[in-house]
Amino acid sequence: MVKVRTILLYLVAVVVAAVPLVPLGLLFALAFSEHPVYVRGFTLANFEFLKTGVLFPGDPHRSKIYPNVYTAAANTLLLALGNMALVTLISSMAGYVISRYSFRGRSALLGTFLVIHGVPASVLLVALYYLLKATGLLNTLLGVVLVKMAVDLPLGVWVLKGFYDGIPWDTEIAALVDGTSRFGAFFRVMLPLVSPGIFSIALFSFLSGWGEFIFVYTFIQSSTNWTLSMLIQSLFASEMGGINLALIAALSVFYLVPVLVLFVVGEKYLVRVTIGGVKG
Amino acid sequence: MRVSRELSKKLIIGVMLTPAVVVAVLFLAVPAALTILISLTELDYRFKWIWCGLNNYARLLTDPTTRLVVQATVIYVAGTLAFNTLWGLCLALLSTHVHDALGTFMRAAWLLPRVLPSVVWAMLMMWIFSPLDTGFLNSLIISMGGQPVPWTFRYYWPFLFVVNGFIGSSLSAIIFSSAIKSIPPDYIIAAKVDGASSFTIITRIILPMIKWHIAFFVAYNTLSLLASFEYILLTLNGGPGYYTTEVMILRAYHLAFGQYMVAMDFGYAATYVTILLVVGLVLSIAYWRVFRLRRLMIEPKLE
Amino acid sequence: MVRVRLENVTKVFRGGVEAVRDLNLEVKDGEFMVLLGPSGCGKTTTLLMIAGVYKPTRGYIYFDDQVVNDLEPKDRNIGMVFQSYALYPHMTVYENIAFPLKLKKLPKEEIDRRVREVASMLKIENLLDRRPGQLSGGQQQRVALARAIAKRPGLFLMDEPLSNLDAKIRVEVRAELKRLQRELGITTIYVTHDQAEAMSLADRIAVMNEGRLQQVGTPDELYYHPANVFVASFIGAPAANLIDADIVEVGGSVFMEALGMRFQLPSDLAQALRGASKVVFMVRPEDVRLSPGKGFTVFSVEWLGRESFVHVQAPDGTLLRVTLPPDQHVSVGEEVSASFNYKRAHFYRPNGELIV
């Protein structure tokens, strides 16, 4: 016999679980809407831009301001991949050393990473702008990738260190006795065993780069270097009067597809990173 | 000639650790120091270093907008923190009291806004809560015969709490639920055997046992919120009106990168940031001591 | 097979912790040497120094007259078995065993031959395709052993390999391990805190405490002639009785005052104990004989089938451990008198040193 309270509990739980999904559903509804501003009907017309990447084919003035969607998408991909590659590479090495080796300044280094991770990057924007300008990296995608990577690194190091900590010492000693050098032990035994951690950080840093906005907004001026986030924001800011929200929604859906796919595939890993980043 | 063990150990540490250290120094330590220096200058769009000592700080004290900015910061941090912590607790409690599959699904669903690109979430929220007739909620209300509500014009703080809270509460929910799950079930069983109601179990056993996690989250989140501004920038951008939601870090951003592409007053902007940096540093060190985070660092065994 | 010698080996860790002090030990070719001692006595540290994972702070380690202090673990030709088995979770059993052979760059056919040979020796041929996570503790133990044996090392190092096994399996594996070592003839150094395990496996035992070597000898030597109080108390179960006593001389005869009573000592002992005043008297439970009489009261009786384990209370309140042969029965509260087999008993100075 099932209690009424239990039924109520589950009902509430289901409703609560659905709440954050509602805005997402509305986004999709608007993207397929026949009306540019209200959710009505179903059409694929808003996705016309997918054919050529040009958002306003009939409007040469607007077309000059806004870059081709595929250009922006390529920039977004570059940023995401660059961030992923650098963060994963550097933190898998640093995490190993910090976890397994005793050296002077180890506690200080770890502590520094922890402190840095707690304070958001926004506090460094002014100085970073100055630095990038001074080194000629302003308005370049490379500059943004480097900054983004630096910001995501402390988390990567902490999470991967945690994974390395979880491998028993005996396993590494066994490898040494079996005939590897320490470097060999790292490649043949340690890395394969922390591969879930590496995958988690790779996934996280890819998504982090893919969704990045504020660094692009601050450091990039030329629209050819825009990422999709910049494109959407700029469209929305200028279309605030409510002229063609459906188009923006469609573009957002296009932007979101990799995010949703990766989220469904790797949600478990993302949760690990979230916990790892806070508890160390 | 075989490389000695000491040397090879140093080589490994060097090669594998240096990139991370270099990045940390170049992109994080140097800019932090630079910010403090900039705050002592009149650096602006001309990009000339003109030292002016503590002038900017004096200006801060006499500037009438400072009071509004600080006020906005306090309200923002307190309100969002409360939302994040309390709602995160509710989510955690709810998701751990139902079947594991539903609980995991719930937490995953709430993780989604956090994973979405910020522009999309912000834009979505602005459209739903738009004060115009074309906003989603208003269009619903109008179609049902009601009057449109000026959501973001009048209820801007609750709006911001919701926008940011959906992002922050997933973090607290994950932390708290993992803490709840690690409570040895024996305690709960003993309490049930003693006749405690679910409510009592929650208040007398579960909550006290995750005290550390709650405190840690509050501390950590306060630090993050002090310098968070992306969603405010993307939605209300400091408005509506005169600096109503202009938190300190947003003020600094506007000063430096110009709301109307005019000022680029880096020196003055850096002043706000330096204050935040100092507060952040002090708090971090305090947390390090209070939470005895040293314990998290076990000395390695090998040589 | 390798002969191992430790000369004045000392290990001090970062922070000043002295894990091993001045250790001098020789392990003969083909010998089964057990390092025995309580937790923290330095036995695992010693093992890891022999493995090359730690470097001695002072002193030298020799493999067959060659100093190996600076030799990397991979070059020492050793096979190691751990308490946790330390199998590589991401490799199959076959790959685990083949790993050291692959690192030696042996030809594929040779590797395959050796792996199968060793697998059949340890009866795990049917497990070769499984992963460690799918195996039971006992099976994992065999795979760990196989991995160590397959590389044909000159030396086996084992760190409490049986501690994680169920008690019943442990006894079986113990016997098999001994037989295997005899058959292969590989020098073995085995670490454990379980004295029964040491006694049953070892050719010789090295007892350690607080980083220092207490005594080295065959199980017989350690059992019947412990060099100090620590060894006397550590070896043997139930533990030996260690009683504080005073030696007095009355009218030409030497007596031992202990437990609130006075015992006359045989003349040969008396000679050796002349001049001593305070001593520690050591007598094993099986060397205490009970007979009807007065002086002691039976405190508790545990009947274990092949013997009885009894506690008797002395006049001064001290409890004495006694094991009785199967046909002797006493009951709680009964009054008995106790006598000691002085031929097997020992006397020590208060600082632990042996007198006789």
Sheet of most strands of chain B: none
Strand fraction band of chain B?
Answer: under 5%
CATH fold annotation of the largest domain in chain C: Rossmann fold
| Count of individual domains of chain C | 2
Describe the strand arrangement of the main beta sheet of chain C, using strand numbers: 6-7-8-3-9-10
CATH class annotation of one domain in chain B: Mainly Alpha
Oligomer: heterotrimer
Strand tally of chain C is: 19
The major β-sheet of chain C equals: 6 strands, mixed
Instruction: Return residue spans of chain B where pLDDT drops below 50 for at least 5 consecutive residues.
Output: none
Query: What is the average per-residue confidence, as pLDDT of chain B, rounded to a whole number?
Result: 85
Computed structural class of chain C: alpha+beta
Q: For this structure, what is the CATH class of the largest domain in chain C?
A: Alpha Beta
Explain what this protein looks like in three dimensions.
The complex is a heterotrimer of chains A (about 280), B (about 300) and C (about 350). Chain A has helices spanning about 5-20, 20-30, 50, 60-65, 70-100, 105-120, 125-135, 140-165, 170-180, 180-195, 195-210, 215-220, 230-240, 245-280. With about 280 residues, chain A is mainly alpha-helical. Chain A has a domain at about 70-230 and about 255-280: MetI-like fold (Orthogonal Bundle). Chain B contains 14 helices and no strands. The mean pLDDT of chain B is about 85. Chain B has about 300 residues and is mainly α. Chain B is globular, with a radius of gyration of 24 Å. The longest helix of chain B has about 35 residues, at about 5-40. With about 350 residues, chain C is an alpha+beta fold. The interface between A and B is large, with 99 and 101 residues.
